[in-house]
Amino acid sequence: MTKEKYSEELLLEEEVLKQNEIVLFNDEVNTFDHVIDTLIYACDHMPEQAEQCALLVHYKGKCTVKTGSYDDLEPRCSKLLQAGLSAEII
Predict the structure, then answer these.
(1) Domain of 32?
(2) CA 7 to chain centre
(3) What is the 8-class DSSP label of residue 87?
(4) How many structural domains compose the chain?
(5) What is the DSSP letter of 61?
(6) Which of the ends of the chain has fewer CB neighbours closer than 10 A, N or C?
(7) Is residue 12 in some structural domain?
(8) The CATH number of the domain where 22 resides is what?
């Protein structure tokens, strides 16, 4: 009984701590510089972080570029979309 209750408490904690992610997808349109500049602007990335994300997107097809609450991510994702990038919140 105690083990079951402990498991339920852990599941509840995980649910509360779950954060959303902005996933950026590769495209054949945008330049590396544009993607990097946009990540710096929209996601508050450092230049090195933005460059690494751009490379991951290019070679892997997608990359999580920001995690957090939906309220924080929604305007950031909108900025990425307005800049012509392909992104979504999951």
Answers:
(1) 18-89
(2) 29
(3) E
(4) 1
(5) S
(6) N
(7) no
(8) 3.30.1390.10
User: Which pair of tokens denotes residue 29?
Assistant: 């349109």
Partnered with residue 67 across adjacent β-strands are 21
Contact (CB, 8 A) for 83 and 38 = yes
Predicted confidence at residue 64, as pLDDT, reads: 97
- DSSP secondary structure, 6-47, as one string: HHHHHHHHHHHH--EEEEEE--SSS-HHHHHHHHHHHH---H
pLDDT level of residue 7 (50, 70, 90 thresholds): low
Distance CA 31, CA 61 (A): 15
Tokens of 47: 């230049």
In a domain, 35, yes or no: yes
CA distance 68 to 62: 18
Q: Which helix (H) or strand (E) holds 85?
A: none
pLDDT digits (tens, 9 = 90+) for 59-88: 999 999 999 999 999 999 999 999 999 999
Place of tokens 């995690």: 67
